[in-house]
Design brief:
The structure holds two protein chains of two kinds. Chain A is built from seven helices and no strands. By secondary structure, chain A is an all-alpha fold. Chain A has one domain: Four Helix Bundle (Hemerythrin (Met), subunit A), CATH 1.20.120.1200. The chains are: A mainly alpha, B mainly alpha. Chains A and B meet through helix 1, helix 2, helix 3, helix 6 and helix 7 of A and helix 1, helix 2 and helix 3 of B.
């Protein structure tokens, strides 16, 4: 079961990245990448890292790709799609959302880790990660918070339009 | 059940695909996406190593990589928007400000 799931996710992941390289449409590129990242989240789950799998899906496939799609919306002036096609995209997006939800639930319950177990005990529980973050990795943790503030302020200052005097 | 080597192999394939995408694509946003693919390939290698070594430290590093990638995406996309406002284009060929 585990090895079958690995090959399924690996093929989907590589296929998503290949689709990103071959497709010309930027919005399609972003969606292919969401697929690839979601599959990577599943692979993380197989590797006994349920917390990182959930973070991967929420932050990478969720937040970062939404940022990409917003920018693509701002720089592209192509015609919208026709109403007949719109119903089709509704189904597709619902399917993708369902896939992500199922993966998130599986990751949180640690089911994937049990399937892909390569021997040894579970190592990636949130408790252990939290303990490591606040003991051995405390300084990097604090520094990343400064980094995030800097990036936030930097992004806003860069994009802000200058006020007219 | 699953050999860790398989994950390393997949990580290498993804990294190479990211490099290919970076050099083949000609618009800034997709090039940026290719960079994200490379970061994720590195993450996969880290988690496979954490599994092989039986220690969660590798997973903590992946946590930091994801944070840095989020910050990088915010700033990078802001720069792409700025470039688009000035040049009205996001094609890599149009960026020759420093070519003289």
């Amino acid at each position: 079961m585990g090895i079958f799931l690995f090959f399924l996710l690996a093929i989907l992941c590589v296929g998503g990245v290949l689709g990103m390289i071959l497709s010309k449409n930027q919005a399609h590129n972003a969606l292919f990448l969401v697929l690839a990242f979601a599959c990577l989240g599943g692979l993380f789950g197989l590797l006994d890292a349920p917390f990182i799998a959930a973070v991967q899906i929420i932050i990478y496939a969720g937040a970062i790709m939404v940022l990409f799609i917003f920018v693509i919306m701002m720089v592209n002036f192509e015609e919208g799609i026709s109403p007949e096609k719109k119903r089709w995209t509704l189904g597709l997006s619902a399917g993708l959302a369902f896939f992500l939800l199922v993966e998130l639930v599986l990751a949180i319950r640690g089911t994937l880790g049990a399937m892909g177990r390569t021997g040894g005990e579970t190592i990636g529980g949130p408790t252990e990660l939290g303990r490591l973050l606040f003991t051995d990795f405390l300084y990097p943790f604090e520094i990343t918070s400064v980094l995030i503030i800097a990036a936030l302020v930097g992004a806003i200052v860069l994009v802000k339009k200058k006020e007219k005097e | 059940m699953i050999p860790v080597n398989y994950f390393f192999l997949l990580s290498i394939v993804l990294f190479v695909l990211g490099i290919i995408g970076f050099f083949v694509k000609r618009d800034l946003i997709t090039m940026f996406m290719a960079v994200e693919v490379m970061l994720n390939a590195a993450n996969l290698a880290f988690i496979a190593l954490a599994k092989a070594a039986g220690s969660p430290a590798g997973q903590v590093i992946v946590f930091f990589v994801i944070t840095v990638a989020a910050a990088e995406a915010a700033v990078g996309l802001a720069i792409i928007l700025l470039v688009f406002r000035q040049k009205k284009s996001i094609k890599a060929e149009d960026m020759r400000l420093m070519k003289g």
